[in-house]
Amino acid sequence: MTNRRIVLASRPEGEPSASNFRLETTETAPLKDGEVLLQTRFLSIDPYMRGRMSDGPSYAAPVGIGEVMVGGTVCEVTESSFPGLQVGDFVGAFSGWQEYAVVPGKGLRKLDPEKGPVSLALSVLGMPGLTAYTGLLNIGAPKPGETVVVSAAAGAVGSLVGQIAKIKGCHVVGIAGGPEKCRYVVETLGFDACVDHRSPTLYDDLKAACQAGVDVYFENVGGKVLECVLPRMNDFSRMPVCGLISQYNLSELPPGPDRSAVLMRAVLTKRIHMQGFIVMDYVSQMADFLRDMSGWLRDGRIHYREDIVDGLENAPEALFGVLKGRNFGKMLVRL
Amino acid sequence: MTNRRIVLASRPEGEPSASNFRLETTETAPLKDGEVLLQTRFLSIDPYMRGRMSDGPSYAAPVGIGEVMVGGTVCEVTESSFPGLQVGDFVGAFSGWQEYAVVPGKGLRKLDPEKGPVSLALSVLGMPGLTAYTGLLNIGAPKPGETVVVSAAAGAVGSLVGQIAKIKGCHVVGIAGGPEKCRYVVETLGFDACVDHRSPTLYDDLKAACQAGVDVYFENVGGKVLECVLPRMNDFSRMPVCGLISQYNLSELPPGPDRSAVLMRAVLTKRIHMQGFIVMDYVSQMADFLRDMSGWLRDGRIHYREDIVDGLENAPEALFGVLKGRNFGKMLVRL
User: Fold this and answer.
1) Are residues A264 and A145 in the same domain?
2) Residue B27's pLDDT band (boundaries 50, 70, 90)?
3) ipTM given for this complex
């Protein structure tokens, strides 16, 4: 089978560009026993992908130069030498930016198209969902009546963090980019408030929205937003650190002054519990997550929005957009 | 009774100086029922006192202008209207920088001079001891074989953190100021290694001393030391944040670049659990602490060193010295 795929051509300095990727055409290998041939239907586009393009130390190995760009996918089985999967089955995979992939059938997650759109396996019922659920509940540990703030509130993870926090009885404040997203976060997702990080009055807006301070700040962005949330944090508050999208494209450290002294002082005097995590740390909670999230979806308590672009060749541009907050909802590429 | 006392005369900008204090002479009030007259024998001098001199937001109210400077004391009862205490008894109190104090007898901690030097109620068997014990065990949660690093390792808290970590079976590395303190930390306190934060090779020295990385960093200082420890932190490591002595005298933020991006990135990618605490958060563990620490002292497993200066009037200078790391051992003023 002729396979079009996008490989990493070079490592970006700062902001990535189209020249960091290369579209290639290859042939798929014949199936071995236990393998399946997958045809990609959806690629998930996520902020963490920027990290994989660099070779600095991180929690996962970088994508090698010339290797297919990584990423979660929803695929259709088009050929099978694996007894558990038939042609026409849909699966969740991690087969990256390519039209076809030959992979072992074992370990693929079979999806039931009767139960809802298969693309949800890349958002509400997949990695972003598990990230929101486990980070909020394990590290944030919100109690009813507490105030939960989440940045990138209209995004795949943030939108779920806030909705789960509402289900848990919290006062929930989102931070998002622009009035349209803020309106969506309040009117559709049901947050109590949402402030615009592009507004020059962010600091005061946040203060007004969090009159009782902040008990949980679910951190997706870093930088100026963190700076504005920090003074609002309550004693014994918690900060799950899930992402730092504002700094992924930095090619050098931001100019001074050195605000790490402010951060450390807040951690000390307010006894903040700050903890980084990645979703892989919590895969053992997948069954609990799927049970709860499927139930909430069924009951209409969780809303979501997908931002879909068509064509493999548009994946790089979709990633650049996600890194700038240009997407509105979970970013997917449909093939 | 004529009482000499030191009050806060003004708030410092940056480094405090003698002019921020004033020595006064007053008379003690007559005793009411349930009160005792205390004569101060030892004042404890501790880094946190710098925070109380300023009126910025913190975990405790600042000392008011004209008020007696706060601090832990060991005192002798010289008059008593409280049935539980006799003249001649020694007590641990929080009566501040003065020769005499009239306080309610209830709540004072009676000390037994037969069991060891009463001054230990201000160090190994007092607030610094409880700080080291609870911060290390609750937040650091070290496991046998793990590497524990502690800054201000020759200080009242740091020296105990490292010795407790050794008792718990850890590889323990101290960070201290100057070769004499480093030698003491290794040869007397029994740490596995100690590196000098004044050395230009601190970064490399720390790397060499922590070949398996750092699982627990007990933070007492902040600034450049933190910057050098951060790259050594292991995945899932813990950082109890107990103090930030390097930044207490800052009158403005350090110059750039803004290193908070580095700090946040380390927290995220290494899933570091960072948590501030103060000893008051853990007073409920006082009985466990006293039981364990008294036992370790009795068994000769805990060593300590006191740095004693005589005369109330020398308390300010003693505090300035502590803030610059000029003390060697627990700083006390003997009256």
Assistant:
1) yes
2) very high
3) 0.93
